[in-house]
Amino acid sequence: QAGYRAWLAYHPRMDSAASKEESLRYAWIASDDRDDTVRAAITEIVEGIGTMYGAAPRISATATDAAGENGPRDSEPNAAYGAGPGILVGTFAANERLRDIFGVEVAELGREGFAIRAKDGVTAIGAHTPVGALYGAFHLLRLLATGIDESELEIVERPANKLRMINQWDNIDGSIERGYAGSSIFYKDDEIDFDPARIRDYARLLASTGINAIAINNVNAHRLESRFVTGDYLPRIAELAAIFRVYGIRLLLSINFAAPIEVGGLPTADPLDADVKRWWRERAADIYAAIPDFGGFLVKADSENRPGPFTYGRGHAEGANMLAEALEAHGGLVVWRCFVYNCKQDWRDRKTDRARAAYDHFLPLDGAFRDNVVLQIKNGPMDFQVREPVSPLLGAMERTNQVVEFQITQEYTGQQRHLCYLVPQWKTVLDFETRALGEASPVKRVVDGSVHGRALGGFAAVSNIGADTNWTGHPLAQSNLYGYGRLAWNPELSAEAIAEEWALQTFGSNRQVADAVVDMLMDSLDIYESYTAPLGVGWMVNPNHHYGPNVDGYEYDKWGTYHFADRDGVGVDRTVLSGTGYAGQYMGANAGTYESFAECPDELLLFFHHVPYGHRLKSGLTVIQHIYDTHFDGALRAAGLAERWASLEGLVPADDYDEALARFREQAEHAKEWRDRINTYFYRKSGVPDERGRTIY
Ligand code: BDP
């Protein structure tokens, strides 16, 4: 099936004559490196160029071989090397020829960067490390697949972020928490059970975008998953780590904070208890014996009924530091999540505000965490809604490593049945000016470490893949996984440029297809937002599974997710003056902007303020009319997506076409349901008719 190859499809170039000519430019490929990662790079290039141009480069002997120093090594004759145009790939240390070509600039590349230079017929990809060379290979293939095949190239790239991580929410029973693309590719029936070829293909997809870390089990680690840190499971986990290692991806495990009790038979999991500390040190030693480059632990503690240090009257710093000490000697990290809030709060207590929780819990701990601890902070203060303000915790801690956490899996954004390209949302977050240090402290600079001079930082995100042949269910949802990796590597890339890269690589170089797909992707977030919860208020979804409209589904529940709609108005008063005080958590002028009724941006108005239905937005519309208009409009535009997709029949692979068309049709129907439920609800509450006289049931 077409979707399986995703953006590594390496479609044949359209014009076969031109294609033939191009292939002559890559007659051979050579490297003096012999490790698995550079070999993987070579394999990828051979396959990619072979499929795109119809003629694969010959794996040639190298410069050194040609000089006869090492004797014949590969079966290929030496004559190919240097004789015509070809590709050199590898590390500077191993390849004298690459050192000659690149000279002095190479120092800037860091551990994961690469340089590409095409000149005089030779395309050279050089890096300090094998994984840098691999990233360079994928980059060259991306350029070729998107139609950039200059005979002269001069490229230097290095990732903006150190940590570029994926979190799998996969459970050992084979299910995936918030997974919308089939069952797990890692587990089945309470066993670690995988097809190595599929894991390798996942690693290729991830590495091609620059992902360098993966936590392979759900942050909610339960009984069997708690045992992952013990000997029983380590051999299989080590096999997984070995596959990912070739692609420069370090493996992490989500741990259960209570594992010393549940697995270790200790009476306590108190982080200050000597036996508990020893138990974790022993686990770390076992893990590193099996997986020498193990990445570390991802921890969800004291959150949504998961155990944590609070049970013992200890704080998050004490909990995280205890684990960090166990991993430190081995070079491991503790990635500690800040998604900590009281999930049993009461709507009658208007001073308890879930939005405040991460900041209230963690800000006082700034500077208290060890150097190998990274805090993982969700992009917004609530939970991956289509629209939320940016978490005020990002940037507020000056002496603490932080990564931003996104959700690629579309839990609240249509569950991969609706189209919702999330890259524009992530861009909004990354470009948000935190004002941590005056005017030049956007989130992207906070998490890359540069604002506060932190050595460690980056991105984490919840994966959207499963065992479905096309990985993501909705074929176009692949763009979110691709886009996440690309942004983690370079947050300056535009959402549109990423969409275009993705479309060209995935569907081939037909411009009509690429343009249509890019336009649909770029419209999709706004369309989705239009027919769902309005103006930043969020949460009007069915409880538990979170799919489909249910305006009051969570309204009188304990989860702290309210809209407070009554006959007069709607929205949550989070001001300092009269509300929960959340607006005051922002730095500098941001606090005032959100506090003020007049200055608060329209799209977040109901997140910060409880306003009358007749309140006039900056757009000129009243709140109630905005709700009606966006919902009518959103449903129409959702139907339009189905039509736009239908215009591509015969131009995209049939499997993808059918799979997506069925989903677009469902989306169009479902958007009408959203429209009618939301509009009817607010019409009944407010009694205000639609100015434009449309029927509201
Ligand atoms: C929420 C999900 C829940 C996760 C939680 C988390 O509904 O399944 O466990 O996030 O991030 O979005 O821990």
TrEMBL record:
Residues annotated as the enzyme's active site: 304 (proton donor), 383 (proton acceptor), 411 (proton acceptor)
Top-rank EC class of the record's enzyme: hydrolase
Alphabetized Pfam families for the sequence: Glyco_hydro_67C, Glyco_hydro_67M, Glyco_hydro_67N
Catalytic activity: Hydrolysis of (1->2)-alpha-D-(4-O-methyl)glucuronosyl links in the main chain of hardwood xylans
Keywords: Carbohydrate metabolism, Glycosidase, Hydrolase, Polysaccharide degradation, Xylan degradation
GO molecular function, one term: xylan alpha-1,2-glucuronosidase activity
EC number, as in UniProt: 3.2.1.131
Residue ranges constituting the Glycosyl hydrolase family 67 catalytic domain according to the UniProt record: 146-471
Transmembrane segments: none
Domain Glycosyl hydrolase family 67 C-terminal: start-end pairs: 472-694
Gene Ontology CC terms, in alphabetical order: extracellular region
Annotated InterPro entries: A-glucoronidase_C_sf, GH, Glyco_hydro_67_aGlcAse, Glyco_hydro_67_aGlcAse_N, Glyco_hydro_67_C, Glyco_hydro_67_cat, Hex-like_dom2
Span of domain Alpha glucuronidase N-terminal: 6-140
Family affiliation: Belongs to the glycosyl hydrolase 67 family.
Subunit organization: Homodimer.
Record protein name field: Xylan alpha-1,2-glucuronidase
Source species of the chain: Paenibacillus methanolicus
Higher taxonomy: Bacteria, Bacillati, Bacillota, Bacilli, Bacillales
